[in-house]
Specification:
Helices cover 33% and strands 27% of the residues. It is an alpha/beta fold and 280 residues long. It starts with a strand and ends in a 7-residue tail after the last strand.
Amino acid sequence: MYELQAAVYRRTEPWGQFAEHGASGVAREMGRALGQQTETALQGLDPDQVGMNMVVSTMLDLPFTSGWITWQEIASEIAKHTRSCPQNFVSAYECSSWGFILRHAKSRRLWNPLVVINIIDLNIFDFSYWRENPNWGKSGFGIATIVLRAGQDDMIHCQVAKSANGFGEFCLDLRNYMAKDQEILVTPPFFPSNISALYDRLLPPERLLPNRVAEYGHSFGCDPWIALIEQRLAGLDKPGERYLATSVSLNGYWALAELQMAAQGVFLLQDTLPAPMVTS
């Protein structure tokens, strides 16, 4: 079973005005934010034990596919601020990308047990589509950095919808999993009530962590990690308690990962990251 060694989340202010001044500044500041947060998450851990380190996102595909910015630009900036630089960037699986990274890491049978994933969703161009959307409600923007210790019996479950109703399939899959395991607690995605109503009806409410959409908005792949951080900071987690981190994507992917929270892990909600200042 995965052991969550660290989870750090930081909200971000809008970057739209800053991005107007070019990609080089965005690469510099994004690299700084990712590198520094990676170091925060790895405190007390040996970076030489990191077997895989990746960055994932739901909304950052356009800056790359358009050629406006390159991963190499950002990676070179990240390397200035951390001893463990990410190996690559993935956005194909949207909110569920973190799960597909875990599945890939498991298939590689890594020698070093730590998997680091940075989940970053910044509305760089300030598109209205990303601010609020009927498919998920109001959005939350930020960076989550997670560090998981992999073992021999890790459960990572990734699926693709077989119909146009991917969210319904996700909810049914989750219900079936919870029926087989009567003790596991679940982190549902943060959705407004008109969307969450489906899993609210199908799943036992006493085993769901709070849907914090009113506070954070739908924060894409960061949702389950925010919920787990709040669980630890509120002192609600118990030794040996097992959790199912979940995310579902608009394009029909979803991921479930079973984990326990490390007793001495790093769990932080950091202050909001201000938008970078434009310097002349």
